[in-house]
Structure formats: C-alpha cells, structure tokens
C-alpha cells in the first residue's frame, strides 16, 4: 500500500501545524507504515501517509482558487459599481483630491480655533465674567457638525484601510512562526536522543569498559615474555607491583606540561565546522610547536643525565597510571555533561542510558573556558607520548643489548611512526573535520583511546623489538620503506583532497574534481582518490600499519596485532560512516555508491 517512492519530492505537513513544506522521501517502514522524509534544511522526520500529499494536488488547488467563473467576475464588478455612475471617469482627478485635502485641513484648523474659543469662554466664566449659555451651546453644535465628517473618515479608514490589515497579517505570521519554532524545539529535543546504539548497546559498552584495559595489559605482559605465543598465557603480576605513586606523579607532570604548551599564545586560531546551533568554536593550532618544545625538554633532560629507559623499566606501571587517570577524567566528563544544554550534547551519546553515554561521551565539546578537553587529548599527551615511548624503547634496546647503534628494525619502526605523528601535528587543522570532533562525544571511549590505547598499543612493535631483536637486510628494509611511502602518499593526498574540498569547494586547485550535489549543500567527490574507493585514507592507514609490523619479522603474530586491530577498527568505522552518510545524504549517497562500488580495497571490498 505504499504511495510514495524513495527520492520522490512531495509536500509534508509539519508536525503540530497545518503548514505543508516541500520534502524528499528517503525511506519507508513497512512495520510502522511511516515515511522518513527530509526537509530542505536537512531535518529528517517520520510522517504518516495522511500527512503527505503530492505536489500536483497543491498546484491544482492553487489554479482552482485563482481562476473564478466569468459570471462571478461580472456580478462582482456590477455590484461594486453604482447604477447612476458612468463607466468612464470613475477615478478622481488629481485636482479634486487636492481640493478635498485642503477642505480637510480647513476643517481641522476651524475645529482647533473653535476649541480655543470655547476654552477662553470657560476661563472667563471662572474669572467671574459670565457668558451666555446659548452662545456656548451654539459653538459646541458647530464643533459637532465639523468634527462629524472627520470621525466618519477615521471609522472608514479603520474598517477599510489596508495598513492595519497588513500589520495584523504580519503579527499572525510572526505568531505562527513562533509556534512552529517552539514545536521544532520540542521535536528536536525528542529527535536528538540517540536511537541506534553502537558497540553492542548497553551490554556491549559495559563489557568494553573492562575489556579494553585488560587487552592493553595482556599485550604488554606478552611482550615481556621470552616466548610470546598466543597460547602461552603470561603469569599475572602482583597487584602492588602495578602501582607506584612516583610513576603516577611523572604521568601527571607529563599531562600538565602538554596542557601548558597548548595554552601558549603561539600558532593561528581557526574556526571549526558549524555546530547544530550554527555556532563555530575556535581552536588554537599549535600542536607542532608543542612537539618541538617537548623535543627541547627531552634534550635538556638527556643533557642532565636523565635516563629515558626508566619508561621501559616501569612501562606497565605507566600504563596503569594512564588508565586510572583516563577513568577519573571520564567520570568528571560525565558529571559535568549532566548540566550541559541540550544543543551541546553529542548526537551519538545522548541515549539516556548511563553506561552507554558514559562510554561514548555525553557532551560533544567539553571546555573549561577556552581549553577544549577533547581536542587537546586527541593529539597532545597520547600522540606525542607515543614518540617519546618509541625513543625510550630505542635507548633501552641499545643499553640491554650493549649496542653502539640501534638495530635497523628499531630505526625503521621509529622513523615510520615519527613521520605519522609529525604529519598529524603539521596538518592539525584537518582533525577538526573528523568524526571524532564533529560527531563523537568525549567519554571513556575517546579518553582511554587517546591517553592509553594510542601511546601503549601503537608502540607495541618498538616494545616487542627490545625483548625480541630481529635482524633484517638492507634490501628488505628498502622494500618495507617503499611500502610505507606508498601507504603514506595515499593517506596524506586523500585526506588533503577531502579537507580542501570541505573547506572551500570552489578552490581553483580542485577544479578538475567532479562531485554529486546533496540536499545538505555539500558535495560527494566521485573523482580523484574518493572516486577510486569510498575510504582511500583507510587504505593508506592499513598499508602503513603493515609496514610498521614487517620489521619485527614473522616469528610471532603479536607485532601484527596492530594490523589486525587496525583492519577491524577501520571496517567498523567504515560501516558507521556508511550508515551516517546514508542518513545524511539520502538518495545522493546511493548514487555515489553506484559510482564508487568499492569501500576500502579496490576490486576486493
């Protein structure tokens, strides 16, 4: 019994009003018999079939109301014209209208004079000089006679003037707009609730809160073993050995040092993408400067004989300290999000379920003044910390194995991952267009990911090589380097293309690119890297991850955990992006998928 097809443009009634607007049908639910429609401003609502009408019915009504019958017209004309009045000369001449205006002015002047006279007479009578009542009555009669035409004219103007009607219409329109705006606010509040839960919903997020830290500790304990095979489960260390107050103090010092670098008034200030309320937040781009300052601090510490391999010796304790800090931060973020306005909540973390919102992040952009907590943690403590950990592993390898120079495998891992981090900090502005910033809230998922997972899991290859040195030849090293360069080239050029197009689609350097226009005003690229596969940046990421693991050899699968994890993560992200883009772009996304059939791997997936 479906009446309207997907992509069809119809007229949809706005909930709570009698107004119809032009909408596009995006989908139909057979169970609830509801149509999902998209308005021109991008709002998506579910409407009944009775609230949707075809455009042709509106056009027919309009034409019927505008074209009346000839007999009606003639009768209306005959009624409006007086019988004794000739057809010609109905309009007054300009001279007659001027005379009328002059007469009116005279009447007003005479009435004012008469009023003055009457007041004078009254004052005289009060002063003891009585005036005849007949004279006063006569003057009032004259006043009444002269004021009567003016009063009648005012009444005619009140009843038949167009100005008050127009004002009334405007008031009615303003009132109806206010009503619509209020109903929109109510609908937005209801629709802003997260309906589709990810990560297995409430049960899945509850499990992940414990599973993610356990995975990190398991991987680190495995790397410490002489035989790190998957079946050889490591013995659990004593609980007291996992915590040291001094290590936690060093971690806090590191975190607040990066916060200090973030607050320095260096680097340009840019605006992020518009939020749901149209506001744009400002961000200071100084991540690369923070990296340079961190390198200077490390150099000074090395000069004063501070040994960085202290990180290697207490690596598990640092991981526990970072996990504890991320948990405390997550609790603080959730408590403060309870007082945040509705429009500042994350679209993906506003389900109303405590555990789910705590995990995914309830507030979109939590800030303390101008200090953006999510943006700071995205690139600073974890990403720069990853490079520092790799350097500590390199020095630990040299000390433990009495090497004058680090191994070729360790140099490759450090170089490849250093390039990745420096690239992210140099192109820091591009982070503002990612889903982490624009869509995901800041909760346990991002806090743990930024502060624990990135520095301690991404440095797994370097940590593995300290205890399990692997020798590789120069030709093999050259081949791995070429593979990493290919992955980096795809990753960087695809991201640059996307970010340039998002910022300024009219950029002359992008004139050769073709795109599909969407209802939101944005375009979907169908040429360049984004016409090759739907997520070319993910393809580059996976190639680079493989190049980072190859220097560790093929003795154990543990160093390749990162590759397996990265493929799983990107496939999940790709599925989430697909769902999000389908909802956002509707029919345009379906056309894009027909033009670009492969998701990540060309001719495979």
Automatic annotation (TrEMBL):
Enzyme Commission code: 1.3.1.70
One of the GO biological process terms: cholesterol biosynthetic process
Catalytic activity: 4,4-dimethyl-5alpha-cholesta-8,24-dien-3beta-ol + NADP(+) = 4,4-dimethyl-5alpha-cholesta-8,14,24-trien-3beta-ol + NADPH + H(+); 5alpha-cholest-8,14-dien-3beta-ol + NADPH + H(+) = 5alpha-cholest-8-en-3beta-ol + NADP(+); 4,4-dimethyl-8,14-cholestadien-3beta-ol + NADPH + H(+) = 4,4-dimethyl-5alpha-cholest-8-en-3beta-ol + NADP(+)
Main subcellular location of this protein, as a coarse class: cytoplasm
GO cellular component terms given for this protein: endoplasmic reticulum membrane; nuclear inner membrane
UniProt xrefs under SMART domains: TUDOR (SM00333)
Regions of compositional bias (Basic and acidic residues) in chain numbering: 97-106
GO molecular function, one term: Delta14-sterol reductase activity
Gene that encodes it: Lbr
Pathway listed: Steroid biosynthesis; cholesterol biosynthesis
Signal peptide: none
Protein localization: Cytoplasm; Endoplasmic reticulum membrane; Nucleus inner membrane
Record-given protein name: Delta(14)-sterol reductase LBR
Membrane topology, record value: Multi-pass membrane protein
Annotated region described as Disordered, given as residue ranges: 54-106, 118-137
Residue stretches of biased makeup (Basic residues): 74-93
Ranges of compositional bias, category Low complexity: 54-73
Pfam families on file: ERG4_ERG24, LBR_tudor
Keywords per UniProt: Cholesterol biosynthesis, Cholesterol metabolism, Cytoplasm, DNA-binding, Endoplasmic reticulum, Lipid biosynthesis, Lipid metabolism, Membrane, Nucleus, Oxidoreductase, Phosphoprotein, Receptor, Steroid biosynthesis, Steroid metabolism, Sterol biosynthesis, Sterol metabolism, Transmembrane, Transmembrane helix
Family the entry assigns: Belongs to the ERG4/ERG24 family.
Taxonomy, superkingdom: Eukaryota
Domain (Tudor): residue spans on this chain: 2-60
InterPro entries in the record: ERG24_DHCR-like, Lamin-B_rcpt_of_tudor, Sterol_reductase_CS, Tudor
Gene3D superfamilies per record: 1.20.120.1630, 2.30.30.140
Membrane spanning stretches: 199-221, 241-264, 285-304, 316-335, 446-466, 472-491, 512-533, 545-571
């Amino acid at each position: 019994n479906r009446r309207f097809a997907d992509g069809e443009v119809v007229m949809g009634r706005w909930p709570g009003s009698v107004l119809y607007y032009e909408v596009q049908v995006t989908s139909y639910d057979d169970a609830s018999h509801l149509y999902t429609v998209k308005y021109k401003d991008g709002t998506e609502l579910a409407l009944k079939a009775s609230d949707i009408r075809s455009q042709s019915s509106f056009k027919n009504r309009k034409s019927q109301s505008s074209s009346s019958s000839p007999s009606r017209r003639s009768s209306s004309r005959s009624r409006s014209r007086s019988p004794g009045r000739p057809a010609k000369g109905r309009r007054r001449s300009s001279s007659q209208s001027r005379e009328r205006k002059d007469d009116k002015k005279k009447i007003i002047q005479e009435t004012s004079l008469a009023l003055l006279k009457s007041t004078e007479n009254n004052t005289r009578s009060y002063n003891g000089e009585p005036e005849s009542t007949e004279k006063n009555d006569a003057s009032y009669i004259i006043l009444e006679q002269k004021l009567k035409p003016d009063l009648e004219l005012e009444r005619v103007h009140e009843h038949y003037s167009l100005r008050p009607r127009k004002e009334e219409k405007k008031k009615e329109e303003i009132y109806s707009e206010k009503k619509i705006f209020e109903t929109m606010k109510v609908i937005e509040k209801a629709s802003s609730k997260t309906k589709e839960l990810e990560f297995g919903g409430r049960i899945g997020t509850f499990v992940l809160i414990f599973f993610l830290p356990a995975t990190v500790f398991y991987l680190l304990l495995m790397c410490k073993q002489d035989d790190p095979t998957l079946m050889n489960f490591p013995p659990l260390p004593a609980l007291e050995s996992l915590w040291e107050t001094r290590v936690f103090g060093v971690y806090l010092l590191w975190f607040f040092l990066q916060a200090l670098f973030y607050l320095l008034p260096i680097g340009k200030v840019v605006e992020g993408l518009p939020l749901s309320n149209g506001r744009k937040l400002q961000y200071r781009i100084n991540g690369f400067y923070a990296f340079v300052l961190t390198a200077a601090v490390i150099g000074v510490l090395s000069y004063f004989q501070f040994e960085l391999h202290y990180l290697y010796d207490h690596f598990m304790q640092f991981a526990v300290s970072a996990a504890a800090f991320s948990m405390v931060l997550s609790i603080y973020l959730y408590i403060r999000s309870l007082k945040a306005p509705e429009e500042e909540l994350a679209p993906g973390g506003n389900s109303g379920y405590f555990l789910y919102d705590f995990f995914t992040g309830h507030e979109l952009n939590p800030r303390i003044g101008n200090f953006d907590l999510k943006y700071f943690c995205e690139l600073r403590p974890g990403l720069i910390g990853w490079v520092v950990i790799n350097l500590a592993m390199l020095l630990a390898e040299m000390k433990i194995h009495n090497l004058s120079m680090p191994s070729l495998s360790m140099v490759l891992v450090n170089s490849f991952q250093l390039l990745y981090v420096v690239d992210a900090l140099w192109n820091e502005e591009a982070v503002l267009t990612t889903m982490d910033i624009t869509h995901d809230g800041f909760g346990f998922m991002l806090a743990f990911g930024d502060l624990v997972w990135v520095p301690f899991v991404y440095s797994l290859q370097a940590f593995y090589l300290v205890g399990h040195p692997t020798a590789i030849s120069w030709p093999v090293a050259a081949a791995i380097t070429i593979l990493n360069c290919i992955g980096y080239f795809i990753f960087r050029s695809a991201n640059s293309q996307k970010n340039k197009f998002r910022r300024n689609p009219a950029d002359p350097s992008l004139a050769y690119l073709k795109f599909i226009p969407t209802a939101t005003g944005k375009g979907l690229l169908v040429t360049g890297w984004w016409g090759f596969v739907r997520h070319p940046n993910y393809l580059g990421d996976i190639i680079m991850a493989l190049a980072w693991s190859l220097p560790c050899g093929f003795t154990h699968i543990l160093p390749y955990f990162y590759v397996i994890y990265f493929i799983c993560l990107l496939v999940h992200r790709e599925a989430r992006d697909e769902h999000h883009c389908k909802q956002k772009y509707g029919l345009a996304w379906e056309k894009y998928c027909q033009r670009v059939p492969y998701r990540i791997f060309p001719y495979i997936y």
